[in-house]
Amino acid sequence: MIDRITALVIKDSLEAISEEMSKTVERTAVHPLFNEVHDYSTGVFFYDGRDVRLVARATAIPVHIFASILSVEALMESFQDDLHEGDIVMLNDPYYGGTHHADWTVMKPVFFDGKPALFPSVRAHMADFGGPVAGGYNPEAKDIWQEALRIPPIKLFEQGVLRQDVFAWILANSRIPNVLRGDLAAMFGACNLAEQRIQALFTKYGGEVVNESIEYTLDYAEKRFRAEVAKWPDGEYRGGATLDHDSLGNYDVEVKTTVTIKGSDLSVDLSGSSPETPGFVNSPFGNTASWVYTALCSVLPEDIPINSGVFRAVTITAPEGTVVNPLPPAPCMFSTVVIGGDVGTATMRALEQAIPAKVGSVSLNYCLCTTYGHDSRYGEMFVTIEYGNTLVAAGGTQGQDGWGGWPAPMCGLIYSTVEMSEIQFPFFYHQYEYVGDTAAPGQWRGVPGFAMKRESVRDTSMINVALTGVRHSSPGFAGGKNGASSRYVLNWGTEHEEEVLESAANRPSPPGSIISTFKGGGGGWGNPFARDPQKVLDDVLDEFITRDSAERDYGVVIQPDSMTIDTDETLRRRALAAK
Amino acid sequence: MAPSLDPAKEASTTIGAMLGRARPTLLRRLASLALIDRRHVTVALATADGRVLGIDPAARLGMVRAVARTVCDAFCDNVAEGDIILTNDPFSGGTHIQDLTLLRPLFVAEQLVGWAIVQVPLPDLGGMAQGGYYPFALEIWAEGIRVTPAKLYREGVLQRDALTMLTLNSRLPHLVEKDVQSMVEVLELANTTVADLAARQTPAVYTQALDRIITDTAAQAQAALSALPHGEWRGESGPIHCCLEEVDLQVIVRVTVSGQAVRLDFSGSSPAAKGFVNTTVATTRAAAAIPFLSLWPALPVNDGLFQPLRISIPDDTFLHAKLPMSVGWSPYQPSQAVVQAVTAALSQTHRPLPPAKQLTAPVASPALPFAVTGCGRPGCLFPRPPIPTP
To answer: Which chain B residue has the Cα nearest residue A130?
Structure first.
């Protein structure tokens, strides 16, 4: 039997290899979505002839966590008898275990003793891959072909040789083929590097030791996860979340969850969720499962390794034909943030009843804005996702106000900077800041809302928008209030000013025109009248909230002259509110 | 001693007979025949360097010529017996997304001696609209998937992943797979014919014979040209409607006949359109050649026919579409306008030409079994989408 020290060394080696893959793609990828925003994940997979298991991963995008296993599984099913040293395979199709078209999975089998033994893989968001609207997010899509190019499991390298014709075919379906070529090359490079490192590991320890270590690591993660669940009260807990719309006039799309805890067993049943919708919010199973795990993993102690050991301790049921497990050809491009986020929220809502101290916001209530056009400075097309209009969503959790931008589980994403965006794209930012009096009240408040004004300069851009989180804004937990509603205005400050209420596709934004957006922040946690008055005063002094808000939302009265807390009046108001 | 047959004549006859058989065979086998424009179903044979030797139907000569040339340039050093290359890319010599071309290199004694070519419109290849006709397409990717030249078979082995990438991007994957299979079968028929033909000669004699088929036609075209009066004539046609902007596109052509050549200059035609009525250079050239097929009906239809034609298409016009413009409707109304403009110019030479309707028949609007919806404004060929009742 493997000794624990060796097992841990090998586990950490595989995680270090994943981390090194991450650094490789970050430093070599071309599009800022990849090299700045870090919308990618890396990991090492194991295949026992039947199941694919994630054995190590780097800090990454939660929505890739589980779906990447299904994608690697689809690749193995397609090529298991036809894999050779030097091969690299890939796919992007949402119905081959994926999430949405944008997330491409590249995988390279690493051979030991003549057999494929481990499978390093990179999954990353590509910026453009054809389809009627740039970036693939088509709010008017009614089927999957109206979104973008579908790539089934395909072999791109055969024994080290690139299939030039197939590669050219794929690149021809991007508006920015040179960028795509660079981003894919970064992924190939990371897999090649991982191959060298994994082979060194095999050479040092031998196949048997590595395999036993993997089994040990998976068992360890499962054991730790089960031990945690066993501490939670047994019961059947129901949760739900509602999405404003699907962009095609269907409103209040529901996600329902029932979390059942029995001893160390945990199951999540999404029965009762809405049927799949005509619009592009349908969440393929891999995406749904990823969001369930995003919620579950965010209530775990952080030293539990996240691998297939955790996943095998959980049962997820999602009925086919529902918005959480649609059937092809339902469109699904927007699902990685909504309905996905709603799956996370609904799971949290159920967990809130069992372990309220641990829950908080995981969803983004995304406001989507993709922009594309021709940049005359560089003489080429550009496609990008705007983050300024969707920057904040972190909710309060026990002991912590909503911080920075997105909820902690999404912190693998790093926002691109205004300065770099202005260099890379024909934009000029007039406003990019928090807005006072918009943070959701709570004993631990949410992050404030965020306002952006972006002007198109020199060239006309085309804009696609899908706005959610208006009627159903970011949720508060354990008595905390919901976040503010988001807004999106095209041609701001002109006679053609237009408030987008749900979505808009291919809207021209000529030079000089401005989009003005407001993104509501995350919800609060706990009763706002229980918030430490000193923290409320700090927020007033920091201009996060006004004195009026302090009084109204928190029951904290602040003397205007001295800017100190009127303790007596505060106690009186809070006592009154408690009645 | 029996009189020996002229190899060029024998080749020409055999190829003609093969094409005459192959196209009906293909039409019979196509699963999606009811959903497509069957005028685009084409069978052709080309030389090793991509010059078209024979084609059915004749009106597709320009189309197939362009794609053959592109694929030949891209793959001539990288093909083997049993390879089949597929493409539908309008910007790789194609017409519009629908028309899928399969090309098979033909080998005799391990020497590349030619290409068998079939072209079939697919009933769907993704994009915004079933069937690919989307008047509001701002870019080619809204019309469907671009398939740049790639190998579907390598040395006789089907590239299953490439085929899946094609079918996965279609709303009608089973029909597409079946039609591709039928195309492959017809390519095999062409392959057998050429192998039999070449077996009766040495590859060198066979190649020379093919070359002569084209040079003879070129010489005949040159002779036919000398029968035209010298001079310059102007033709124009239009308007062509675009659903995405208030413009009426015009085709303007100046036809100049001199001793050696007919020059067709499309300067002055309208600038590029926003919508799907732009045409690629290949499509424009193909349409421009159609009137000459009728003007010189006795000429064999092959690459030689293009020899005296000098076609100039300024790159700032809608007749010279560049990536990523949409081109879905290009084989119809815009091509029709090109045919009409050239015919209008040629008719001033007072040489007999068939009635206009007959000339434009190959490029007339297709009868489609599915609805194409447009802006519905005056001049629009497509009805507005029905307003949903609450």
So the answer is: B141
